């Protein structure tokens, strides 16, 4: 074994960073044996240097992250700051000064993946980011490496633990959204400002990363269609139950049937209770992958949290260190297919539509005509009258989203339709 | 991209090999883009050269596998023959002549992994074998690489599709073992001689491989405790249902609580319906991994079949080819912990014991005394009388297997115990 240690700079020492530092210290012998050389924590950049950080020698702490990544003797920079800046500049500077980079930064990877990969390649260094998607669940590496000889057609996943906790709570307790969110906040599953989670921004960043890797193309955050889950109601769950379904916030990346384009989207959807994703409880994540040869695979585990995320960071750290010793690099960006990303209107899906209609003859015929005019075929209709009004629930067959949303717009204009109580896509069948 | 192709020799062209050859041909451009150089099928060693093999040029076919691996211009040998010999000699010869090796051979890896790794290292070549365990499911790579910075404590998996199909059939239809086996045979899930599957030999080989990788030590096939599932009855399933459980043939690799040893075993066990493995249906495989930092992960997918296994082989082929271009090698054997493998008697588990006893006063006291004398604590007792006899079902708390099996031996000697109807371990709680 080489005795000269590989030097690691840690940018950020919050929930994830402190756990990375702790494991690097307590498991130093194991890491050395697995890498083939010892690893040394050479510096830790933080914002609040006065905070007590157990197990980290005070002389390693610095507030000058830029000077740390510019030192020139750093082999690997671990970036767990999050956000776009200063993370982007620090990572680029790290490459320029000869370091490889392990990052857990989904927002940055989704937005700037291309330029970061280019910088890594220019300087002959690695960019690894298993921790950026679904915490501890090995997902980036299986997609980039295990399935490198296969053709992935679909990635369907629960990639945000906060929203899965809220939806699971609504499902099992009958709670409304606000009540479930309050519980998630009280238990620490939701942040004080939950926007990034509940509006689907976090999941959309992960969808962009997954789609790019799965289809060997570039998918930007702006390419991802996004709907949050704040408008999911207890009534939606009741409807889902009647269909033998539950509701999950899904990130869905698909190759079009003709293979000429891809789509990426995040929205709440009904999925059958028999689907493996339906039984993913609490804050867990799970990702379903469909590939030509492999068939259907699922990866399941904790999608967030300090320790699970640190596990993913350290797995990458071991790989990057091994590459350094080999004077090699792992797989870089693979975007050779250059497949375009189609808009949401081209996605083929099914709608579950719940309408408040007048309970009188001819209404169903009117509604059915609107579907027919938009070329949307109806799978099931269920109508329940009450006091001169009726709930009319229509579940469609598969159709382009543009046709489905066009149908809904036309339904809204019918005099006999008092309102559209809910619209939800149906997936996973 | 490099234009000179990497040359691949294929040993075996059955269900898996023919699919590997097909994908190498039909997806040649994708593989080239992902590797950074074209790959060329340079030779295919078969036993029956006269068989028509669609898509494989006749001039590539040879019956002389030894000459093929000795050619000297082969970059990667893909071994999908199975069995110990001639596979072992061919792989060793391949290393000696400068090739890296991708194998799907679980029996060989379980029995000869150490010497094969040594040969690979001696010649500076790669040995990859993702396809040897759980078909298409990425499992070896996540354990070897993604979790390389973590401490794995437990691997609990359904790693044999044939037996899972049979047990699932017994569970859902109430069929007996023979009837379910017949259906598995008719559908092609079981071989004409199902011994390797139903007696747990196949799963034991996979358990040896998984335990070695998970705990960074050497676990030989002989170290794995093995019980088949041919004696599981419809009555066992009825008992399991009453406990809120089902029955699965599990491969279980564990680190002892004190960390100083490991165990590996294969046997049928009751697991709670709430456990993610309980809902693994048909011939699917799934493996649950528990690690210090990552927590609980699960990997699910098709565990066998030509296409899924080929997917895993091709993922390894891409990785090994990339390493060749980098003039590097991936991770080799990691057995530095040198943890000993403890015998089955040391495993801590729970027993579900079903006894036929005389239905008269004092029997329960006698039985309970035997448990107490062996230091085994009882969790639940259920007794149901019929015609002077009674079924007595005892579920224990956790205890060493030696104490539990000692208890059963002593129970058999009691006059009031007419017979032991079934014994099954309870796992996954």
Automatic annotation (TrEMBL), chains A, B:
NADPH binds at residue 106. Residues 352-425 form the ACT domain. Its cofactor is a metal cation. Its EC number is 1.1.1.3. It comes from the Bacteria. Pathway: Amino-acid biosynthesis; L-methionine biosynthesis via de novo pathway; L-homoserine from L-aspartate: step 3/3; Amino-acid biosynthesis; L-threonine biosynthesis; L-threonine from L-aspartate: step 3/5. NADP(+) binds at residues 11-18. One of its GO terms (biological process) is methionine biosynthetic process. Keywords: Amino-acid biosynthesis, Metal-binding, Methionine biosynthesis, NAD, NADP, Oxidoreductase, Sodium, Threonine biosynthesis. Catalyzes the conversion of L-aspartate-beta-semialdehyde (L-Asa) to L-homoserine (L-Hse), the third step in the biosynthesis of threonine and methionine from aspartate. Belongs to the homoserine dehydrogenase family. This is Homoserine dehydrogenase. It comes from Streptomyces ficellus.
């Amino acid at each position: 074994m080489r005795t000269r240690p590989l030097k690691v700079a840690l940018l950020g020492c919050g929930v994830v960073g402190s756990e990375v530092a702790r494991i690097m210290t307590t498991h130093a012998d194991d890491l050395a044996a697995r890498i083939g050389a010892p690893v040394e924590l050479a510096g830790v950049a933080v914002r609040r240097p006065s905070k007590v950080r157990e197990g980290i020698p005070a002389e390693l702490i610095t507030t000058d992250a830029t000077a740390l990544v510019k030192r020139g003797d750093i082999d690997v920079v671990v970036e767990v700051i999050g956000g776009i800046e200063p993370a982007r500049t620090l990572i680029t500077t790290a490459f320029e000064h000869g370091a490889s980079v392990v990052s857990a930064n989904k927002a940055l990877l989704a937005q700037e993946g291309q330029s970061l990969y280019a910088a890594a390649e220019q300087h002959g260094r690695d960019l690894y980011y298993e921790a950026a998607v679904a915490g501890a669940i090995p997902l980036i590496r299986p997609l980039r490496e295990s399935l490198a000889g296969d053709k992935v057609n679909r990635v369907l996943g629960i990639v945000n633990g906060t929203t899965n906790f809220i939806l699971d709570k609504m499902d099992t307790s009958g709670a409304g959204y606000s009540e479930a969110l309050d519980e998630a906040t009280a238990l620490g599953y939701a942040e004080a400002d939950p926007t990034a989670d509940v509006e689907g921004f976090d999941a959309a960043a992960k969808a962009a990363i997954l789609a790019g890797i799965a289809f060997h193309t570039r998918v930007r955050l702006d390419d991802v269609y996004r709907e949050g889950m704040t408008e999911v109601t207890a009534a939606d769950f009741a409807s889902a139950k009647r269909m033998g379904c539950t509701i999950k916030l899904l990130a869905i990346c698909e190759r079009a049937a003709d293979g000429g384009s891809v789509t990426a989207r995040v929205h709440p959807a009904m999925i059958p209770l028999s689907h493996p994703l339906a039984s993913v409880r609490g804050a867990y994540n799970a990702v379903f992958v469909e590939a030509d040869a492999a068939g259907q695979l699922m990866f399941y585990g904790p999608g967030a949290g300090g320790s699970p995320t640190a596990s993913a960071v350290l797995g990458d750290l071991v790989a990057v260190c091994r590459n350094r010793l080999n004077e090699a690099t792992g797989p870089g960006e693979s975007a050779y297919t250059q497949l375009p990303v189609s808009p949401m209107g081209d996605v083929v899906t099914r709608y579950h539509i719940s309408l408040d209609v007048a309970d009188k003859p001819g209404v169903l015929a009117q509604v059915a005509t609107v579907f027919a005019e938009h070329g949307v075929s109806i799978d099931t209709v269920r109508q329940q009258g009450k006091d001169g009004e009726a709930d009319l629930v229509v579940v469609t067959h598969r159709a382009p989203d543009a046709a489905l949303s066009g149908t809904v717009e036309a339904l809204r204009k019918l005099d006999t339709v008092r309102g559209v109580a809910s619209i939800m896509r149906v997936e996973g069948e």
